[in-house]
Design a protein that fits this description.
two-stranded antiparallel ribbon; about 5% strand; His-Me finger endonuclease fold; mainly alpha; 2 domains; elongated; single chain; about 130 residues
Length: about 130
């Protein structure tokens, strides 16, 4: 049989069969490309657009505005793009620890406020200097 079938369902089945037949080749080629500088730039731009609806230029502007450091702790380098899980809006760029912390508190300001109150009530005494 020559060419692709006109029927979309048959075409999809054929494409899937073709992919499975040569899957290892496709995966190796894709992995090798992603290791190149062009592949890393392309992949990052694609992920930013797909996940966060922002361009690479917008992300770089945010990175520059934050000076390359976390928006919360202001000490660690940026590792994650933080976004609201309800609206999808990018809030800022965070280090790994701050991003995980916000996630563990389920992005809930009330829960974070209770955690802050808890820490203040149970604050360890500061050692005296001198």
């Amino acid at each position: 049989m020559m060419g692709w079938p006109a029927d979309p369902v048959e075409r999809k089945k054929r494409k899937q069969a073709e992919y499975l037949k040569h899957r290892e080749i496709y995966l190796r080629r894709n992995a090798a490309y992603k290791k190149t500088p062009a592949g890393q730039i392309s992949d990052k731009g694609w992920r930013l657009k797909k996940r966060y609806k922002i361009s690479k230029e917008e992300w770089l502007a945010l990175f520059t505005a934050q000076g390359g450091i976390c928006a919360i702790c202001i000490t660690n380098p940026i590792k994650h793009t933080d976004h609201c899980h309800y609206t999808g809006t990018v809030r800022g760029l965070l280090c790994h620890k701050c991003n995980v912390g916000i996630g563990l508190f389920r992005d809930d300001p009330a829960l974070l406020a209770r955690a802050i109150a808890y820490l203040k009530r149970n604050k360890a005494p500061q050692p005296k200097l001198g």
